[in-house]
Amino acid sequence: MLVENFRPGVMDRLGLGPDVLRADNPRLIYCAISGFGQDGPLADRPAHDQIVQGLSGVMSVTGDATSAPLRVGYPMADTVGGLTAAMMICAALNAPERGAVIDVSMLDSVLATMGWVVSNHLIGGVAPQTNGNETPTSAPSGTLQCADGPINIAANKDDQWEALARHLGRADLLADPAFATREDRKANRLRLRAELETVLTTRPAEEWARALNPLGVPAGAVMTVPEILAHPQVAGRDFIAWFEDVPGVGRGIEVVRVGAMVDGRRPSVAAPPPELGQDGDAILKALGYDADDIAQMRKEGVT
Amino acid sequence: MLVENFRPGVMDRLGLGPDVLRADNPRLIYCAISGFGQDGPLADRPAHDQIVQGLSGVMSVTGDATSAPLRVGYPMADTVGGLTAAMMICAALNAPERGAVIDVSMLDSVLATMGWVVSNHLIGGVAPQTNGNETPTSAPSGTLQCADGPINIAANKDDQWEALARHLGRADLLADPAFATREDRKANRLRLRAELETVLTTRPAEEWARALNPLGVPAGAVMTVPEILAHPQVAGRDFIAWFEDVPGVGRGIEVVRVGAMVDGRRPSVAAPPPELGQDGDAILKALGYDADDIAQMRKEGVT
């Protein structure tokens, strides 16, 4: 298996393109990951995560009317591209005698994860909009303020709305014609938010979440990355691997594992990230080169 | 293969949990997709996409100092969870005699795609920050204003910065000590942005992108979803499938395919989304039930 992330054409120029390599080994699974795919009018453009986020429409729908377009605050185009590659390689391994040339496009990979933003347009002809943190199809559904910070609440159904209002001690709102139906609540969502926040701001978000979820009202705090990584839901399910005394770091480090368990165990990560060229000598030796050959190659700048 | 998306415990209550089904068929690949995984303190909470976005830290790093926390404007936790499930199922199919019980957590799946936001914290002890549309490690690198809207530019290296300044007719900036080194440009990024935008705002973003990329300066317009779906890079690479006369819709519809090509072809989508229960009768007949049985089951509310 070979995975490369060059711009289209570079591997061919090095004499290592898929045609050459597969002529030698028809069972090779060759996976190229590029910004836009191996052909097409944008194929030759250099791709950075943020540029793919911009071209894909991700930025256009993130934020609200005043803050959009905004990028997602981590390199999601890089990693969704990588996850798509991992899926395609796992699929190709099911027919190992056949081999495969896999051409992953970060742009296409991101578009394939955009769900109803894409399908509402393609199928319903509905243009995507910026909605900030509000869920436009329902209310109260979005991000509201608590004593210590924001909470997400998705009281999308009538009974969830009723349970929320009663738990907050605001059963009076259930009698208000402005909030009688889902359509009424959507039309008056700003007023509704203000009413609910008068109560929500009296206690911390996590306390509300702990009380509301058992009542059937989906709710969750807005956490920071350090907070969730230390949370027992993540730390207690073996999501984070620990490696002692890592070469190039000189101490132990933690890395995350895959987002699923198999037969009750988290698939392990075999090794920490290597140093640059760490395994080069061992690989060359396995290919039959001796120490003199390797020294010569290094002198010539081949490795 | 079985894929389910209930809250933990529901399939057991229905008598269809993995232990029961695998006792009957040890080769079964059983894949459960839930918000937080099958156990742990949050397992019983209902999960909506936005709630997972909030808990995972995604919202905490999206936006800038005034607009964060913001959700990503499409259901990324739903779809990254689904993509992780697809990868794990493809992997499990490589050992079909073994079967597998796969427990996908949307929360873990999202955390696994957060790249340096997570690793900077875990390995470097660096707390994640909100950076809006700026790339904090470089300048000029971020979203800048053109005549018709914004453009992403990633002039991260010295030679890219020089090519950009020269192409914009602002070689004078190269002589300004405020912009001499990458550290200088980072320290003065707001002033640098203003200088560059005096020129960038004279032409549309796509025109700049078309000129800058061949000079080695990564650049791309910020597009809307309809714009990119109609772009020849996407439409010309067979990313969108067309189905005629779809049941329940009464007309043709378009759906997106997977974000990769295999051996020069886009893996096809076999069928459009079905209507609810569309295949129920055919499946029951294949299991040996006749029309009377099915009518009786329907009467009893079993199907």
What do these coordinates show?
Two copies of one chain form a homodimer. Chain A is an alpha/beta fold. Among the domains of chain A are: 2-124, 3-Layer(aba) Sandwich (Rossmann fold); 141-222, formyl-coa transferase, domain 3 (2-Layer Sandwich). Helices cover 37% and strands 13% of the residues of chain A. Chain A has 14 helices and nine strands. The first copy, chain A, has helices at residues 10-13, 18-24, 49-55, 76-92, 106-111, 116-124, 158-167, 182-187, 189-200, 205-212, 225-230, 232-235, 280-286, 291-299; strands at 2-4, 29-34, 100-105, 141-145, 150-154, 219-221, 240-243, 253-256, 260-262. In chain A, the strands form three sheets. Chain A has a three-stranded parallel β-sheet. In chain A, strand 4 and strand 5 (150-154) form a beta hairpin. The model of chain A has no long low-confidence stretch (mean pLDDT 95). At the A-B interface, helix 3, helix 4, strand 3, helix 5 and helix 6 of A face helix 3, helix 4, strand 3, helix 5 and helix 6 of B. Strand 9 of chain A pairs antiparallel with strand 3 of chain B.
